[in-house]
Design goal:
Helix content is 42%, strand content 16%. It is of the alpha/beta class. An eight-stranded mixed beta sheet has the order 3-4-2-5-1-6-7-8, with helices on both faces. The chain starts with 10 loop residues before the first strand and ends with a helix. The longest helix has 22 residues. It is globular. The protein has one domain: Rossmann fold, CATH 3.40.50.300. Helix 1 crosses helix 12 and helix 6 packs parallel to helix 7.
Length: 276
């Protein structure tokens, strides 16, 4: 087992939850945008065959000459596949349905869970001699909603996992399963993997259910849960259909401001980790 090492300025964070519809892609898009807005250089890796993070960042299906499939199959590096978005400092490695066939294609390769880790290690090597303003500070990996080979690749490559949790009835069931999966991955594939934090999404302070779920998640994860919560917000839901992060679509709405606060909280948490 070899953990990702190298450029201490680069942090790789997988955004994962085995449940669908909890806000993983929305968080990847808007957290990446918020980090870029405060001066960080960010690469989002879309690992979901649906390619929703790519679409939400304005990269149409016909504008993806190289994808994360090409990276995982060894045909392209992350830098080869990375595309600039409308947000200065924010880039994306897009995805498409080619990812669906990857697992069967690499079945005979014993190193198949580490393909993305190797690609990230190559990225770190490529960045070593580049000036700071041309190097990535964060890699955010948008994972599919299942524990398949794609998610295993993300978890093997990541320093940490960010877990979005929707404030709904089955939330705790999903995150307890995910925590077990992270523990298993730490024991077998990536011994340094940690939970960076848990973010409550689609929170509606008017409902008793949202407040109860938030309290239960905070009891379960303690200080791992960010103070910032992402509110249920129509503008956040609308933005991807326009190919824009919420900060570009409606900067002043409650969802935009929440993601800016979340980015600030994550950067502060990262500073503590690096100082430890």
């Amino acid at each position: 087992m070899t953990a990702i090492v190298g450029n201490p300025g680069l942090r790789v964070i997988g955004i994962a939850n085995q449940k669908g519809g909890v806000g993983k892609t929305t968080t990847a898009i808007n957290l990446g945008t918020a980090l870029a807005a405060v001066g960080e250089r960010v690469l989002v890796i879309d690992l979901d065959p649906q390619g929703n993070a790519s679409t939400g960042l304005g990269i149409g299906a016909d504008k993806r000459p190289r994808t994360s499939y090409d990276v995982l199959s060894g045909a392209a590096s992350l830098l080869d596949a990375a595309l600039a978005t409308a947000v200065p400092g924010l880039f994306v490695v897009p995805a498409n349905s080619d990812l669906v066939g990857l697992e069967s294609e690499v079945l005979a390769d014993p190193g198949r869970p580490f393909r993305l880790r190797d690609a990230v290690a190559a990225l770190i090597a490529q960045q070593r001699n580049k000036p700071a303003d041309q190097s990535f500070n964060y890699v955010l990996i948008d994972c599919p909603p299942s524990l398949n080979l794609l998610t295993l690749n993300a978890m093997s490559a990541a320093h940490a996992v960010l877990v979005p949790v929707q404030c709904e009835f089955f939330a705790l069931e999903g995150i307890s399963q995910l925590k077990e999966s992270i523990d298993q991955i730490r024991a077998t594939l990536n011994p340094t993997l940690e939970i960076q934090g848990v973010v409550l999404t689609m929170y509606d302070q008017r409902t008793t259910l949202s407040r109860e779920v938030a309290a239960n998640v905070r009891e379960f994860f303690g200080s791992k849960v960010y103070e910032t919560v992402i509110p249920r917000n129509t503008r956040v839901a609308e933005a991807p259909s326009h190919g824009k992060p919420i900060l570009l679509y409606d900067y002043d709405c409650a969802g935009s401001q929440a993601y800016i606060r979340l980015a600030t909280e994550i950067i502060e948490r990262e500073r503590h980790i690096k100082a430890a």
